[in-house]
Amino acid sequence: MKKILFSILISSYLLVADALPTSIKSSIKSVSNTSVTLASNIPKGMSGIVVHNYGNGLSAITHMLVSEGGASAKVGAYRATLHKNIPSIKTPVTVGDKVIFGNFYNNVLLIAPNQTAYKQITKKFQRTWVHPDAFSLYFMQEGESSISMNNLEKFARKNQVGLVLVVTADELLVIDPISKSVIGRTALKTNPNTAMTPFYARFEQMDVSVFGMSDKSLTPYFKSVAGLK
Fold first, then answer.
1. What burial class does residue 225 get, using C-beta atoms within 10 Å of its C-beta: 0-12 exposed, 13-18 middle, 19+ buried?
2. Residue 223 — very low, low, confident or very high, per pLDDT cuts 50/70/90?
């Protein structure tokens, strides 16, 4: 009965939330130190990349940026993992450079307390879903004790994850892990006493107690994700 109730609550949410954030293209109108003005308004907290055109069909990513809301954004170094024999790009941010916010927003990691929630949400949204096992394995290898913006960011950079969805006790958080920002949230009521199906760990040797998987209630899980709000 509890499982059915939880499924109904998740389904009710999905009738309201019809879309996740998608990538947005714009261009740079002006540059001032580490800030830029964009040709269009971008939701606050979205991260993106700056692409410079060198002519003759050549272009490259030169910087990353994070929207401050409206047409303003902060610019920083592009920190993707590059081959050691490939030189870093020294090109400055230039007026006219193209920008793409949410360039990896199609790749999504969903952290949910049970299999029912996971299946309902992944079925609703057509994205490339990064299995939670990958994050669980990374989590243990790094010796982490709780889910945080820092370990989500590190995992996202390593695995080209653009969005992280987290089911909490009362809402669904939409996180841009690169900017470490909650860029969306929707009310979502769950039952904290609902029994869980441990879908994170397909590997028996995994210690996933931090996610609440060794407990029959959702309390440990909700405590783990509480700091993200």
1. buried
2. confident
Each residue of 95-152: pLDDT tens digit? 999 999 999 999 999 988 777 778 888 888 889 999 888 888 887 788 877 788 999 9
Distances (CA, A) of 159 to 90, 146, 186, 229: 25, 19, 26, 23
Q: How far apart are CA 86 and CA 39, in angstroms?
A: 32
Strand partners, 73: 36, 67
Q: Is the CB of residue 163 less than 8 Å from the CB of residue 108? A: yes
pLDDT at res. 96: 96
Query: For residue 113, which of 66, 61, 166 has the smallest C-alpha distance?
Result: 166
Q: Are strands 35-38 and 128-130 parallel, antiparallel or unpaired?
A: unpaired
Provide φ and ψ at 20, rounded to 5°. -105, 160
Report residue 158: phi and psi, to 5°: -70, -30
- Six-digit token pair at 133? 């096992």
